[in-house]
Write the structure tokens for this entry.
Amino acid sequence: MPGFFMDVQLDEQEREMKLESYAQGQVAVVTGGSAGIGLATAGLFLASGAAVAICGRDPERLAAAEDELRQRHPGAHLLGFCCDVLDGEAVEKFAQAVAARYGRIDILINNAGEGRSSTFSDTSDEAWRRELELKYFSIIRPVRAFLPWLKQSSSPSITCVSSLLAVQPEPHMVATSSARAGTLNLIKSLAAELAPFRIRVNAILVGIVESGQWRRRFRAQHEQPDWAEWSHGLALQKGIPWGRFGHPDEAARALYFLATSMSSYTTGSTVDVSGGLARHV
Ligand code: NDP
């Protein structure tokens, strides 16, 4: 830790670095990298010259994601590992596998998860426990498992995919909103505790991003028009000033900014990816 708190002077070369080169040669782990925001993020890091490890629970979805990423990025350094981020032992094995393959781990993106739609009256104790467990332990378990490696990196970061619901709760997603708020608090504490190791800890606050979970909600509706019409209508109904859902790539770019040294002086912070849906100042 000596020297950590000294001023950082950016040299010319660093100023002129191309966007892509911020992740060149680094090893990025993306939990839930087999679909949606996680898949887009894995693709962005691969395109930037990083080695990438992804995990997911469904082996077929994971294999399909690996195939897609390898096709788009021939010669990519990519590791797929089937595991549930709530399973501590499995996440440990994931960390060991990444370290064994690449010898280092620089970037952890905690993305795995999904939201839960239910009001207070509809949410049982068991549902509360499941939601709180998912939101907290999808951060806690990977952080614990990857921390020893992140501590050895010269440019380490942990970036969490959170939700605008953390700061702008919706009554129809009461448990998710409440759990997300709590984990933003956890992220602040982690940022302070891990600062002496130069590990930055941040989050993005996602509004609505087109992804697997929204496609599933769309399919569950009956007599709906096509996806574009449905999603546009919903964006307007939700009051998204941008008038559309976000694209997974748009969330991925915000993650890239926070996870790489492009944001070298940013920790314990959030970036909003909500098309203007955030109402707070
Ligand atoms: P998708 O459903 O498209 O992708 C979720 C990914 O996470 C899949 O790869 C899924 O694979 C994996 N996953 C889910 N649960 C677990 C688990 N317990 N262990 C390991 N992998 C898991 O979702 P999104 O891209 O939309 O969501 C990504 C994150 O963004 C989530 O945390 C979500 O809550 C958050 N978010 C998304 C919003 C949106 O509008 N899309 C809004 C606010 C927050 P598998 O199922 O095979 O495990």
Notes: The CA atoms of residues 231 and 245 lie 7 Å apart.
